[in-house]
Amino acid sequence: MISYLSHIGKTHDSLPPLPVRAAGKVSLNTPVGSCLDHLGRVWLADTAHNRLLVFDASLQHLLASFGQTGSAPGEFNMPFRLLAHPDKPWIYVTDMGNRRIQLLEYTPDLEITPLLTFGNQAPINLTGPNGLVFHDGQLCVADEFFEGADGESRLVVLDEEGHFIRDIRHIRYPDNSHEPLQLLWPQGLTLDQQGNIYIANTGFNTLVRCNWQGEAVPFAINGKAYLEGMELARDVSCIRQHLLVPGASANAIAVYDLNGRRQGSLQGFYAPIQITAGSEKDTLLITEPILASLQLHQVRLNDVKGGAALFTQVLNRVGDDRDQPGQLHFVTSAAGQPPAHPADDPLSPFPWVRQWLDTSQQQLETYTNRIQTPALPSWLSLSLSWQTEWLLRWQQSWLRIMLGERLDNPAHLLWLLDAGNYQLQASGSTRPDGARPVGMPLVPGSLGMTTLKTRHRLAGQLAPDKPLLVVCNYLTSLVTIYQYHPLLDELVPYRVFGSRGSQPWQLLSPQGISIDPVNQDILIADSGNHRIARWRLTRSGIAGLVDTFGTPGDGPGQFHTPSDVALDEQGHCYVTDQFNHRIQVFDARGQWLYSFGQPGYATEGDQFLLPTSLAYEQGHLVVSDLVNRAIKLFRPDGTFVASFAGFGADASKGQLWMPYLMHVRNGQIYLPDCALNRVNVYQLELESQP
Amino acid sequence: MNTFRKAANKRLQQQQQAPAESVAPATDSENLLQGITEVITELEVTPAVLLQKQALYQKLHALHQQGCELASRQCMTGPIH
Hints:
The structure holds 2 protein chains of 2 kinds. Chain A is mainly beta. Chain A folds into 3 domains: 16-240, TolB, C-terminal domain (Neuraminidase); 241-320, no CATH class; 331-347 and 407-684, TolB, C-terminal domain (Neuraminidase), CATH 2.120.10.30. Chain A has 2 helices and 57 strands. In chain A, strand 36 and strand 37 (479-485) form a beta hairpin. Chain A is globular. By secondary structure, chain B is an all-alpha fold. The termini of chain B are far apart. Chain B has a domain at 46-81. Chain B has helices at 3-17, 29-45, 50-74. Chains A and B meet through strand 42 of A and helix 1 and helix 3 of B.
């Protein structure tokens, strides 16, 4: 049985009396959707905070905040996309975790009233309402997690007050010249001036075009109703006769014309999602959920042609302030364990030191943020943000060392990889505000982490009684091993290995990492190379490659993006074969033994959709099943035992949005959610051994 | 074939068509050392103009990558068992 206990990661969502100057006053939590109302004000879905925020057109002032966590009208659970009615003072909100759409009415002085909620009952029964478009009195919503007969998702067409008209499950060519197109996990929607619908079809990474009857509208460039070759297709916006697809190539927004011809790209982004035309000429509002930021950019889209890669100018930005005490930002993994009976404040015996540190860090941040002047090129704005954050982390580390803030007992801490703040945090308890920064700054892209308690002192190891911390980096494909430095009382780098590529000694986008209890080998889910790598630290402290196993494919022993690895007492290796939607099991020599699981929506049983992480605990396997937002417990042979499921952003219920690399220790599951920015803690009660 | 498998196949096909990424290997450790020395020297003598620093950081990062590549490749000369 799995039950929710608590979470680590403090929520900083308080606001001063409104209206207020936005700079430095707003901490966002994975914002997604935005729209303009008929007075040009900017509405933003602050998704993981379960609220909407309204800013003036230039993002200088925060004017209103609306909503809180819940399921009553006017309450939200993951408000996702926003759409302004073209004629009336109405805003549609896809309230994803509540599986419904809310219709809000606003006045010019921003009194906001819930008018209607719909979509969560028959005959509509939305399962994952995401993108929205409106045309000719009809509303269309992408129902991302709907399960059709073949697993396909759908679009649902409603009237403006939410009455069902039709759904669209396949995009059919009117002349039957091609096979009908299937939708899988459609997210963003947009319209052109003719009212054609463009769909970011995330499961296939394609951009699909159809009309309101679900008939294919082929692109001139390829005669098909879809564009492909995109790295990612999560959203699309049609702005001034251009199609903008954020993430179609990494860290950029691809620009196409309406014939499907790629014109070029806008550069200088991280992982943008929603793009909305601003009220001023040539301006774009862009949300960066992972950076926790809403940005106002200026660019002439007509200049994007001939494959040009242009930078925009950043006019203003809000949010991007997620390093308050106890706060996490894109937390990806956990390791270690807090003590069973935590002290009140185990990380700092001198509260005044911590208070002084917190104050000085906030002052430093305010100062460095002033370096950002308006109209910086997007690449420079992004670089400056990263560099100032990075500098801050270093200054904070030195301050901690100089002031002698102690780790207390590093062997009894839960380590958290706070990737968005480029740092490790540690917690001596499972309280929401328990996390504190520790160690030197991390290289951007740090992702998977595990502890390694060596059996012998290795050459150069300063404190062999304290575990090493092994951290892999998704971007650089390097693995860094940190050790505890008794004099500095900090973690310092011990060894680095790996490099980016596909040669046997290289790694490509490594994710989960685990230690073999038999021989202390380091096993790495080398996801981009579709294999598992086994490395070993020798007594002289040299890291050497032992072996790799697995090839790309969907046969036995083949992988499609293996994301995590776990080992049992005999050294059997369990792998989440993520895009094959199964768990594969290997013996200690990397020989395939068996696999279990098949694709499907289910919160119980052995159906998975993108199983992302797993752990072995006392004769059982714990699997985090991403799309099903479920933690599933199995016996090692694949027999289902129990599960916990919950999709949403309600912290009181242990719900999940983007759970990443799980850690299980002594019957407690620590599951970081990189979108909700907290680590959920669950109690695992195991049946007796079979 | 159901939608999930069809989507996964398409994704894998797309990934395998993409050109393989690899960091250009350092020819030997001497070249690497020389490269790092150059960067460190430049960092000391160049005024702290952001653009130049940016380029130098990138160069240093590439050299660091190459260093790791070299070290990791050397670990391959005799697999550890």
